[in-house]
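REQUEST FORM: STRUCTURE PREDICTION
Request ID: SP-0412
Submitted by: Lab K.M.
Chain count: 1
Length (residues): 363
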Amino acid sequence: MGAYILRRLLLIIPTLLGIMIINFALTQFVPGGPVEQVLAEMRGEGDVFESISGGSGDVEVQLEAASAESDYIGARGLPPEFIADLERQFGLDKPPLERFLSMMWNYMQFDFGESYFRSQGVLELVWDKLPVSITLGLWATLISYMISIPLGIRKAVRDGSSFDTWTSAIIIVAYAIPGFLFAIMLLVLFAGGSYWQIFPLRGLTSSNFDELSDLGKVGDYLWHITLPVLASLISSFATLTLLTKNSFLDEIRKQYVVTAKAKGLTESRVLYGHVFRNAMLIVIAGFPGLFLSVFFGGSVIIETLFSLDGLGRMGFQAALQRDYPVIFGTLFFFGLIGLLINIVSDLMYVFVDPRIDFEKRES
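STATUS: Completed
RESULT:
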C-alpha cells in the first residue's frame, strides 16, 4: 500500500502542473484584465465587463471601440506611460511564459503573492474565508450522512412499500430542485422575505456575538447556519439516500444473505452483521468526495445569497475583477486539496474493507 500511496503522491505534481498550465493559458485569451479593470473604474464604468460588452448589441461597433481604446484613453488624460506603469505593477510587462514560470517557482516556496485589489496576501485571504466554507461543507456532509444512511437502509428493507414510494417522491423532488432555488425559497419563507422572520438573513454570527455566553455563542452560530446548510445539503441528501438504498438492495439479493437466513440468523443480525459492511463500502468511502463537492460546488451561490464571506464568494469576486493572484493561488490550493482528498477516498476503501488491495489491482 505504501508504494501505491507514493505513486499517487508523485502523480499530484504533473496533474497540478497541467491544471495550472491550462487555466493560465485560458486567461491569456479572456478579454479584460486587472489593468482594464482599473481603467474602467477610473472612467466611472464600474466594471471591466461593461467596457467590453458595451451598451449596444452591434458587434462591429464594439470591435471598433475596442480597437480605438488607446486613443480613447489618451483623450481622457491617461498617458501611455501610466498604462505601462500599471502593467509593471501588476507584473504584466513580462512575457506569459516568464510570468508562469515565476509564479510556479513562488508556489513551490508557498509564496502565493498578494491580491491586486485587497492589499492582502492570498494565503491570508484564504485563511480568513476558510471557516465559512468549511462550516457549510462539513455540516452539510455530516447531516446528509446522518439522514440518508438510515433512510436508505429503511427504504431498501421496505422496498416497494408505501413508505418507499412516498419517500422516493420526496427524494426525486429534492433532487430536481436546484440548490439556489431552494435557498431563495428558504429566505422567502423563514428569513423575513414574505412570511416568517425565524432565521437571520445574513452572516454566521450576530453583531453582539462577543458579548454572549459560551452557550449563547453556540446557539447563535447554529441559528445562523441553519438555512445555508439546509440549502447546501438538499441535492447531496437525495443522491446519497438513493445510493445507500441501491447498495443495500444489491447486497440483500446476493447468495450469502440467503445462506445466512437459512442458517436461522435474524433479519437484524443478517442486515447489520453481514450486509451493512459490504453495502456501506461505497457510501462511506465516498465521504471525502461528497464533502469536496459540497465544499466547492455550491458554495458560490449559497454564500452569495446568504451574504457569507467565504471562499466561493471571494473566488467569484476575484474572477470578476481579474485578480490573478487570488484566482491562481486559490486554484492551486484547491487543486492540491482535491487531489489529496482523492487519495484519502482510496484509503477509505481499504479502511472499510481490508480485502481491497490497489497494488494488486494495478499489477
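NOTES: Residues 88 and 314 are 25 Å apart (CA to CA).
Reviewed by: T.R.
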